[in-house]
Design goal:
By secondary structure, this protein is an alpha/beta fold. It has one domain: 2-enoyl-CoA Hydratase, Chain A, domain 1 (Alpha-Beta Complex), CATH 3.90.226.10. It has 10 helices and 9 strands. The strands form 2 sheets. The chain has a 7-stranded mixed beta sheet, with helices on both faces. The chain has a two-stranded parallel ribbon with strand order 6-8. Strand 1 and strand 2 form a beta hairpin. The model has no long low-confidence stretch (mean pLDDT about 95).
């Protein structure tokens, strides 16, 4: 499947029981709502494909992995319903990864911000380059990473999430992210990263699919309430984004 539009691109390749889903957007691989919706549906669809044993999730280009949700759409939110719907975008993707039944390998070649960190955290196993620094800057504009927090905390713990969110203006490098458990391995170059992902995905695709499916269930045990939880978190963020503080902060960013 190949879908390229002005609000981003999404491409899926299936070969040797490995599905590679690649997303992209000119604005540092950020996500407009429609692209998040398409990614959610694609993960669910690929998860149901009996020819797929493992999924690789990656973004286009050599620079940023993902700059989070669309800034233009964030600025345009004018009521509670719009706010909740906007923040539900990443909630739906995280839940799609959680419930798709297939192990998801994340390829993080560059910086991840906000929802991009949540996307990496939702993957079952992440390989990255040393350029893959992370930042959660939501508190600086009067909101918080409430939707992605369960996924992030599941990977790096409460103390890691606290450090990342409270120190909201500073980047944490890829080795910090590896030490905390977000990344499994960090490589110097994208070429080394791709070689490792190819070897890993080929190994996984050669294993018993029934065992892989059961392993996925085990890894996500205790998250059965996330459909409701992330929806509640989206409502919290949707309300905060309408605050006077956030409106003023976003105006500064626009300027």
């Amino acid at each position: 499947m190949n879908a390229t539009r002005s609000n981003g691109s999404l491409y899926t390749k299936i070969q040797n029981n490995i599905a590679t889903i690649e997303f992209g957007h000119p604005a540092s691989n950020s996500f407009p709502s429609e692209l998040l919706d398409r990614l959610t549906k694609e993960i669910i669809s690929v998860g149901k494909n009996t020819e797929v044993f493992v999924i690789i999730l990656k973004s286009e280009g050599e620079k940023a992995f993902c700059a989070g949700a669309s800034f233009d759409e964030l600025v345009a939110i004018s009521n509670l319903e719009q706010g909740k719907q906007f923040f539900s975008g990443f909630a739906n993707v995280i839940n799609a990864v959680r419930t798709c039944g297939k192990l998801v390998i994340g390829r993080v070649q560059g910086k991840a911000v906000g929802g991009g960190v949540g996307l990496a955290a939702a993957c079952d196993y992440v390989l990255a380059t040393e350029n893959a620094a992370i930042k959660l800057s939501e508190l600086t504009i009067g909101i918080g990473p409430f939707v992605i927090e369960p996924a992030v905390t599941r990977k790096i713990g409460v103390s890691g999430t606290a450090e990342l969110t409270i120190d909201a203006t500073n980047w944490k490098n890829a080795y910090w992210a590896k030490e905390k458990g977000l990344y499994a391995r960090v490589f110097e170059t994208a070429k080394e990263l791709d070689t490792a992902i190819e070897l890993l995905s080929e190994k996984l695709a050669s294993y018993n699919i029934a065992a892989l499916t059961e392993m996925k269930k085990v890894l996500w045990k205790g998250t059965e309430n996330w459909t409701d939880l992330l929806e509640e978190r989206a409502a919290v963020s949707g309300e905060l984004v309408l605050s006077e503080f956030t409106k003023k902060a976003l105006e500064k960013f626009k300027k």
